[in-house]
Amino acid sequence: MIRDRLRYHAPADVETACRILGDSPSAAVIGGGTIAVPRLGRGELRADDIVHLSRAGLAEVVLSEGELRIGSMVTYAGLLATPGIEQLNPLLCTVARGITGGDQIRNQGTLGGSICHANPASDVPTALVALRARLVLHSIEGEREVPAGEFLRGGFQADIRPGEILTHILVRPVDRSGYHKFKLSESSWPIVTAAATLTHDRQCHVVLGGVEPVPVRIDLSQIVGTESTIRELVAATVRPTWSDALAPAEYRHLISGEIAARAVAQLGGV
Amino acid sequence: MDLMRPRAAATESDPPRRRDGELILSGRGDYLDDVRIPGLTYAAFVRSPHPHARVRGFRTAAAEAHSGVLRVLTGREAAERIGPIPHFFSPTNVGGKTTDFECLASTEVYYVGQPVAAVVATDPGDAEAAAELVEVDYDVLPPVLDAHQALQSGAPQAFSHWDDNLVVRVAFNEGDVAEAFESAPHVLRDRVKIQRYGTSPLEPRGYIAQWNPDGRLVVRASTQMPHPLRSALAAMFDLPETAVRVIAPRLGGAFGHKFHGYPEEGALCLLSRLVRAPVKWLERREDAMLVGAREMEHDLAIAFDDEGVILGLRDSIVCDVGALGTSAGWGMAFVAAMTFPGPYRVPAYDVESLVVVTNKAPWNGARGFGKESACLALERAVDLVAAELSLDAAEVRRRNFIPSTAFPYWTASKRLDSGDYQAVLDKALALGDYPELVERRRQARAAGRLAGVGIAFELTPEGGDFPGGLARGFDTSTVRMDPAGSVTVLTGVTSPGTGNETAIGQLVAAELGVSFDRVRVVQGDTDTTPYGFGNGSSRSLNLGGGAAVLAAREVRAKLVAAAAVALECDPGCIALDKDTVFREGGAQMPISDLARFVYTTSIAHPAVPYQHLEATCSYAPEQNLLHQPDSAGRTSSYPTFSNSAHVCAVEVDEHTGQVTLASYAAVDDCGVIVNPILVRGQLLGAIAMGIGGALWEEARFDDRGHPVATSFKNYLVPRSVDLPAIRVGHHTTPSPFTLLGTKGAGEGGVAGAVAAVCNAVNDAIAPLGARVSKMPLSAPNVLRAIREVTK
Amino acid sequence: MSKLDSQDVPGRRITVTVNGVERRAWCADRTLLAHFVREQLALPGTHVGCMNGDCGACTVIVDGAIVKSCLQLAAAADGAEITTVEGLGEPGNLHPVQEAFWAEDGFQCGFCLPGHLLVALKLAEQQGDPSEEEIRAALAGNLCRCTGYQSIVAAVQRAIRQTEGT
Ligand SMILES: Cc1cc2nc3c(=O)[nH]c(=O)nc-3n(C[C@H](O)[C@H](O)[C@H](O)COP(=O)(O)OP(=O)(O)OC[C@H]3O[C@@H](n4cnc5c(N)ncnc54)[C@H](O)[C@@H]3O)c2cc1C
Ligand code: FES
Ligand code: FES
């Protein structure tokens, strides 16, 4: 049960949303609500005002000049329903299809909400860091753009300033990609996620999530080809610094090389 | 007595579907949360943030000032107004010790999450908001969080007024164990640890307490045991039981979680009295996950000969029952020991169970009820024997089974009624394609993968009878036919969603020769049903159904006598079938006419019995219960024993420790089957729960005594994609000791699944020289076991 | 911190079309859609099992998409078209999907049913021929503690067969 006697707002545009945020002593933004609403219910998130972005015109995916502009209210299902998206960004599609919780969660949860929540074990942060996505943040003071890798500052810590709203996620295509997540069972949050990318300029990277408080990028360009070296490289690079209720840091660390190798294997011969 | 088999049994080609299906399927199930009562108020509880602390005092002003708040009640005040919670079944009944448990703790808290105060408000959100504002001063005391540590001298005491942490030690033994171990050619040891986990019914608990203007307490409770809950509440409030009514609406699953004995039960009644309004409380998922069960560690030794024949068995089980509480949970420790030596003929064994308190939330009953723990230990032991002697695991079981000709078969603590364990196992091996699984394992291993096959045999004591408390092995039903020929069954057993109401209706319909739809089954209301012990121990159909059949037979006798008058013939010529009364070779009349005839012409017509068309009977399979030790010192608190065999195949990912269940088959013997749809459903559900417990479910605590499992995101129950298609079959050896020949279905399957999966995983990692007997077999636990030998 | 003033809880009247019928009702801004449907609209067939998006018992269809109603504020549903389990069929006139669940014993306690039925409805509407694996995947957002899912899978298969061509 939500304890706070909060007020609900569904502003029709971003400007109004930011104004309400700025005016309220304690306001919370909600996107799909799949994380925020239960947190309100448990009293983990407190608010007098709720700014729901559902009517703020942020639910569109637009392709312009080769760049995908994903509104922060685009759900996993919404992304998958975008014409041509499988060719434009197979990595995000793999992530979206693999979100658990059924069609319900894919219909409700947004990519924007996931990156803002900054759970180290989630899928979206890893994928967006791997894709070198840029995040557009809006407030009454104006707009700024932050690379996903900088936006994520720590476990559950995103670089969102008071009064700011994430409006868009900007992603450019990569040449090839691979994604693998490891979870304990269908109910389980991901334990370790790995997104591998091969860019048009032959840069090969793997980004690992769930091992450290923020996704870790590892440059594989020099050692592409031999799986065992990927495992060794990963084991030597990542530090066991993140754990949660499902798995201790040591375990995440132990399997990270293997998970990375599985993602990289999807790139095909490179 | 010559036992009469039920007229309704599985041989019927078209068993009825679940009763009330249309209501449930169309969203009209009327579960507790659906009950509408005007003027409802809502409670929220203030819970201890400490595993162990002395309660110094309360500050409630801020909470009282919160809008919508009607009342704040502290443990201090509650202690002055109501007595301690009566035990479901006190450890003192088996020579142990206990202490008083309060609805709201007034002086000392024993676990994180223990209620210490409560708030009532007009809105549930306001109640929770205000509960946060209640300030409680604590003096933190050292907690003890591990049972082994708790047994050491100088360990902190879970209850500061106790001298140690041992509730009771129970032991069962037969034969000369020392001699058996000394002379045995082989002895193996293992430690098998089963983790703490519960049952998580999809519907959490809930209650609505209300005092009527006449001073009667009416409690709607999602409980499996309305009558014993009534007894407990009457005792706490010092009321005659007639002044309390407990109504259990339809339950959304229970599995032991809804046994009574929770602190909220009495607290809500007190709150309702104080605010003079109905008070409602729904358990949150995190509250539900506090409830523990099963955390046991076996220190096991098995002695055997060169042929794999078991010569002796020793087990010392340390049971971490948390802060004990008043629920039935700790009894699992007793049942775990009592279940030994399972389906095997073991000439000498010595099994003890140590019930140890710690500062974690208490247990409640959990489907399996300790039998899964015993089964896991036994089946691990048998597999160790097989591995040691390089024998087939199924073959070792065959060599040790109690033969089908040996029943009834006595052990120290039970008389096994009937069975054909070898036939059940053979059927399961066939159903599960055992040779094929073994071949596929060979191929997988050749390809460098870790593949395993697991077998387990489960013995499931059912329908337990525990004198000294209100957990008994008998129950009572009333059968009543009204003047229009419709039938009402009122029974003391309840249904948590398993479907016994369907099967009971079916049994009564068959006895009376009426159609299933004519029979209504009423359960769960202490004002209308006979005093009964509710649902648990797979007892409902055995006992409630047995009692209903006896009562139906009495009604039938009256009907037959009246029919003989109405149709002018000898009673022996009367048959009741298809809602019709038949006279042999001639006249017939609708059953409704006969009922009407009885009601309207008795006395006027001297030969027509003028008693109601109603009877109430109790039933217990008493022939197989023995509470005073016999000359050999043996007792028996369970009358009947279902059993099942399980065969499964797994693959283990060497790099991650991930277990994938590739196939699963099981065959059970639950005696006579009244409705195969229901029995199948029970077995499938039990196996799924067993698999969940074997692989994922764990209610862990951190090292400060705080529960880590608080939602379905960190307490992992199986989902559809986690489970393979499960093949099930049945083998029937009727119980000679139960009225219906039934043994009980419901619990059976949990234990075998836990053990079969564990055996399969161990089989899979055996080529590495690894072994894992710390449950659950989650990927991190399995990988740890693998790395211990490969690192 | 929550506010301690005694002013009324912020709320509003919203209009929704539920199971084909337009309804206008008040809701507090903090009310979850699940509770709004159950209490204000008096449609208790939608169940609440976890309030965390995990169990799926609170599943409803909003504007054509299945969602978990414990994850959504009721105020957000203003103007929406909602289908709850009550919208399927009623006693005496069950929907083929409900009939299929009954025939295959696709429930025991029934608490999970609203979610499973609506997922099955969606699958049946798609008029495809999903494999068992695909059906299991479609059910992955819904928990059942009673059945072990097997009979639910069978019920969904039957539901798809029965609604074929309708
Ligand atoms: C049953 C279930 C299964 C799930 N399975 C997965 C899974 O497999 N993998 C995975 O990664 N995740 C999973 N999730 C989590 C899922 O990723 C998130 O639920 C979802 O994507 C978050 O999006 P949302 O819009 O619902 O976030 P919300 O709950 O709306 O918001 C999350 C947080 O971000 C903030 N926020 C949201 N949008 C903005 C914005 N535009 N600007 C500023 N702040 C904002 C909110 O204030 C809040 O703090 C699961 C969740 C559930 C309930
Ligand atoms: S109550 Fe909504 S998913 Fe469980
Ligand atoms: S039938 Fe009980 S939870 Fe599914």
Key words describing this protein structure:
heterotrimer, A: 270 residues, alpha+beta, Uridine Diphospho-n-acetylenolpyruvylglucosamine Reductase, domain 2, Uridine Diphospho-n-acetylenolpyruvylglucosamine Reductase, domain 3, 3 domains, five-stranded antiparallel sheet, four-stranded antiparallel sheet, 14 strands, B: 791 residues, Aldehyde Oxidoreductase, domain 4, seven-stranded mixed sheet, globular, binds flavin-adenine dinucleotide, binds FE2/S2 (inorganic) cluster
Folded structure, characterized:
- The complex is a heterotrimer of chains A (270), B (791) and C (166).
- Chain A has 270 residues and is an alpha+beta fold.
- In chain A, 33% of the residues lie in helices and 26% in strands.
- Chain B is of the alpha+beta class and 791 residues long.
- Chain B is built from 20 helices and 28 strands.
- In chain B, strands 3-5-1-12-9-10-11 form a seven-stranded mixed sheet, sandwiched between helices. A five-stranded mixed sheet of chain B has the order 7-15-14-13-8. A four-stranded mixed sheet of chain B has the order 18-26-27-28, sandwiched between helices.
- In chain B, strand 23 and strand 24 form a beta hairpin.
- In chain B, helix 11 packs parallel to helix 19.
- Chains B and C meet through helix 1 and helix 18 of B and helix 2, helix 3, helix 4 and helix 5 of C.
- Bound molecules: flavin-adenine dinucleotide and FE2/S2 (inorganic) cluster (2 copies).
- The site of one FE2/S2 (inorganic) cluster has 12 residues of chain C, from loops.
Bound small molecules, by name, code or SMILES, are: flavin-adenine dinucleotide, FE2/S2 (inorganic) cluster
Strand residue content of chain B:
15-25%
**What would CATH call the class of the largest domain in chain C?**
Alpha Beta
**Helical residue percent band of chain C:** 25-40%
What is the CATH architecture descriptor of the domain at 415-464 and 638-790 in chain B? 2-Layer Sandwich
Q: Regarding CATH, which class of the domain at 415-464 and 638-790 in chain B? A: Alpha Beta
Strand line-up across the major sheet of chain B: 3-5-1-12-9-10-11
- Fill in the CATH topology of the domain at 415-464 and 638-790 in chain B: Aldehyde Oxidoreductase, domain 4
Silhouette of chain B? globular
Ranges of chain B with pLDDT <50 over ≥5 residues?
none
CATH architecture of the largest domain in chain C: Roll
Number of separate helices of chain B: 20
CATH superfamily of the largest domain in chain C: Beta-grasp domain
Provide mean pLDDT of chain B, rounded.
96
The biggest sheet of chain B, with number of strands, parallel, antiparallel or mixed sense and barrel status, is: 7 strands, mixed
* CA-CA gap between termini of chain C: 54 Å
Query: What structural category do the secondary elements of chain C indicate?
Result: alpha+beta
Task: Could you tell me the CATH topology label of the largest domain in chain C.
Answer: Ubiquitin-like (UB roll)
